[in-house]
């Protein structure tokens, strides 16, 4: 017994107590009802009945006050949660078009606390370009479609733009009435951060593109300079042999042969580089990687068959298109498949399989992998694979991969190589961003 209670009992010379437990509806003891008497003794049967009635009433009162406290606590939690996550909630009764906004949602929409929110007020806040989205979603909800989830922008009276993510849930009452209960999250900060990140990414891509193009041209210039220098020396020496009083034709012929060989090499390099440029500047259009691969493999079919190999193409249906130069992208695929084919033939493996796979790696990127059942790439060669003029082939120029890299990077993509193929050989993977119109439509 608590001290004040004890004092009270002593002060009034109470001598007997009758305690009755107060039970919750679930049978738990949530209190005790005590009846004190001045004289020792039990309450009469009639009094006991009254006491048990009173205990029942007390149980209702205690449970209600506990529920109210719990409700208040969860309301506080909810409000705090909404405030922290910058989320508000709403209820839209479809039969009367009555809308109720939580106070957080009023703050997000910047509506005054005391005005009654209407559909017109909401429409006036939505960015004019996004009104069709709002109209479409409202039609969907009115037709009873559940779980609308979408992004929409608001435009504040001072011109500020806010980005919202909306989640709705349609409740169908037994009498046929519809209500839409929803949460709206203000994702402006996240969106701005994403935009800033995207900007930095594209600036970086630009820098690396310029750099990779620069490196490529520098090494091509260097590579052409070498045969040119030797053409010059051999040509001059040849002339001297011919200018002698007794021209040495054998020596001159030998030098001329070298001149022709060097000139041929220089011409070949120029030819490859011209191919890479696709006959001029980049011609950008919306292209489907699936089509590009199909065209490139048709072009290579004969070569593949005579070498006893096979190419399988696996493309996820309905891939978004990419913005790019058809000829250049075909060149990338052709270079990769030819390399794979050469690896298969040169190594003399029995099983000659090449697999090309295209899929979406996320909603913004398409990924293409070209892999083979060849011997794979020597680990020590991996870091130099994309360097211009790096080759392990006798007749190779070492231009296929650097050209592919430069094309992919000029399309804001990236290309990598490893030996992770399930077929046992090398795997080249490139990624390209999907075109904006395609990304918007999906
Ligand atoms: N699928 C592959 N399997 C194993 N090694 C490869 C594969 N693809 C490329 N390589 C290695 O990478 C090197 C560079 O390839 P790249 O295409 O740039 O030049 P290349 O094929 O040697 O000559 P070019 O393409 O100019 O005729 C190759 O010489 C080879 O060693
Ligand atoms: Mg090659």
Automatic annotation (TrEMBL):
Domain of life the protein comes from: Bacteria
SMART domains, A to Z: HATPase_c, HisKA, PAC
Catalysed reactions, as listed in the record: ATP + protein L-histidine = ADP + protein N-phospho-L-histidine
Keyword tRNA-binding attributed: no
A Pfam entry, by short name: HisKA
Signal peptide from the UniProt entry: none
Domain PAC: residue ranges: 148-199
PROSITE patterns listed in its UniProt record: HIS_KIN (PS50109), PAC (PS50113)
PANTHER family: PEROXIDE STRESS-ACTIVATED HISTIDINE KINASE MAK3, SENSOR HISTIDINE KINASE
Protein name per UniProt: histidine kinase
């Amino acid at each position: 017994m608590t001290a004040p209670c004890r004092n009270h009992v002593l002060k009034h010379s109470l001598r007997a107590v009758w305690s009755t437990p107060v039970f919750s509806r679930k049978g738990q003891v949530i209190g005790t009802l005590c009846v004190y008497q001045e004289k020792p003794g039990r309450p009469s049967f009639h009094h006991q009945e009254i006491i048990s009635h009173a205990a029942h009433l007390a149980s209702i009162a205690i449970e209600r006050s506990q529920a109210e406290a719990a409700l208040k606590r969860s309301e506080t939690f909810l409000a705090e949660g909404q405030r922290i996550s910058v989320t508000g909630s709403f209820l839209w009764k479809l039969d009367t078009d009555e809308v109720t906004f939580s106070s957080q949602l009023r703050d997000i929409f910047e509506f005054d606390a005391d005005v009654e929110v209407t559909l017109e007020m909401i429409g006036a806040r939505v960015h004019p370009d996004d009104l069709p989205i709002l109209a479409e979603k409202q039609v969907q909800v009115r037709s009873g479609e559940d779980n609308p989830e979408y992004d929409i922008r608001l435009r504040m009276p001072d011109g500020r733009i806010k980005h919202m993510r909306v989640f709705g849930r349609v409740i169908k009452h037994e009498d046929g009435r519809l209500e839409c209960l929803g949460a709206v999250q203000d994702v402006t900060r996240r969106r701005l951060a994403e935009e800033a990140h995207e900007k930095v990414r594209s600036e970086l891509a630009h820098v690396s593109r310029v750099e990779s193009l620069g490196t490529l041209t520098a090494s091509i210039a260097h590579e052409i300079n070498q045969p040119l220098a030797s053409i010059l020396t051999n040509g001059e020496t040849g002339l001297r042999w011919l200018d002698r009083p007794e021209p040495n034709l054998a020596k001159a012929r030998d030098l001329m042969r070298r001149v022709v060989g060097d000139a041929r090499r220089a011409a070949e390099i120029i030819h490859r580089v011209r191919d890479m440029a696709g006959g001029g500047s980049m011609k950008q259009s919306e292209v489907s990687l699936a089509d590009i691969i199909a065209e490139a493999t048709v072009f290579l079919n004969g070569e593949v068959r005579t070498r006893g190999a096979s190419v399988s193409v696996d493309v996820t249906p309905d891939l978004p298109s990419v913005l790019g130069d058809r000829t250049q992208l075909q060149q990338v695929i052709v270079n990769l498949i030819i390399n794979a084919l050469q690896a298969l033939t040169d190594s003399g493996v029995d099983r000659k399989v090449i697999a090309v796979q295209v899929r979406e790696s996320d909603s913004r990127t398409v990924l293409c992998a070209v892999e083979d059942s060849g011997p794979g790439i020597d680990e020590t060669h991996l870091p130099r694979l994309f360097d211009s003029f790096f080759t392990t082939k006798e007749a190779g120029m070492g231009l296929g991969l650097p050209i592919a890299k430069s094309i992919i990077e000029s399309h804001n993509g990236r290309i990598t190589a490893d030996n992770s193929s399930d077929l046992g050989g090398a795997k080249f993977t490139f990624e390209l961003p999907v075109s904006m119109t395609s990304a918007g439509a999906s």
